Amino acid sequence: MSEKVERCRREVETGRERYEQSLTELNGYNAKYIEDMTEVFQRTQDFEHRRLTFIKKILYDMLACVDLTQYKASVAHHSSLHTTKRFLPSNQSTQRNARNERNKRSERTAKTQG
């Protein structure tokens, strides 16, 4: 029994020594890991900056394509359409006029039949 206990103590001691050795070895890699990850982070930040710049450029280019105010001809055309629309009867008055016309027709029809 004492041999078993002694053997277990030696195994525990060797296990502890291996653990401490592995821990020391891993701690030696910390500086290199931090340096590498800092580089990866910086590359990612640079890529993100380029991506955002690209998206902004594309969106501004699209805005320039659909912005009709920069073309004098389209501004004049839009202005003339707006003026023409102002002089057209509103939808409400158009419906009222159509209803009045139907009523007059039905009254005339009733008089001729009566």
Walk me through what this model shows.
- By secondary structure, the chain is mainly α.
- The chain has two domains: 1-66; 72-114.
- Helix content is 91%, strand content 0%.
- The chain has three helices and no strands.
- The chain has helices at residues 2-66, 72-87, 91-113.
- The longest helix has 65 residues, at 2-66.
- The protein is elongated, with a radius of gyration of 43 Å.
Oligomer: single chain
The DSSP helix count reads 3
| Count of individual domains | 2
Main beta sheet: strand number and arrangement? none
From N to C, what is the helix and strand string?
A: HHH
Task: Give the low-confidence spans.
Answer: none
Taken from the alpha-carbon principal axes, the silhouette is: elongated
What is the β-strand count?
0
Mean pLDDT, to the nearest integer, reads 80
Radius of gyration: 43 Å
Classify the beta-strand content into a percent band: under 5%
Characteristic key phrases:
114 residues; mainly alpha; 2 domains; elongated
How are the secondary structure elements laid out?
Blueprint lengths: L1 H65 L5 H16 L3 H23 L1
Short description:
This protein is mainly α and 114 residues long.
